[in-house]
Amino acid sequence: MKLVLFRHAIAMDREEAMLKKIEDGNRPLTPKGKEKSEQLVKELVRLCPDVDMIVCSPLLRSQQTSEIIAKAYKISKIDQSAELVPEAPPMAFIQWLSQFGRRKVAVVAVGHEPHLSTLASWILAGKTDSFVELKKSGFAVIEVDDLTQIVTGRATLELLVQPKAFVK
Hints:
By secondary structure, this protein is of the alpha/beta class. It is about 35% helix and about 15% strand. A six-stranded mixed sheet has the order 3-2-4-1-5-6, with helices on both faces.
């Protein structure tokens, strides 16, 4: 079973959002961010074709990135999890997945840094000092025994894809 950790695409700059009085959670993707994400999602579909669930944080940039992924996979429902916000502890999303990941083969979780890197490091080695870094629109594919009972140190990092590798 696979857990794909996908970092949201490039969003409106924080300073620009503040000038426009847009809250951080409502910062939208930029046109460049959408374009890059679409390119990376094509690679994700090629590398991991059997996704059956997409879950994202409640922040707009994560939701918009999830919509791009859902369109590529022809998935109509996107779940939301507050456990994917940047400051969430890694175990919180693992507990969420234990409830909602039943009978899933591959789940794409769309979120933010530093949460996703910390989550990947915790799953792979039981460490919260991150040794994985995800750039915007980058993703990691992690093989686990069971999505509902993830055990730290028993997963395998299959892929770590950074945008530079596929986007020109």
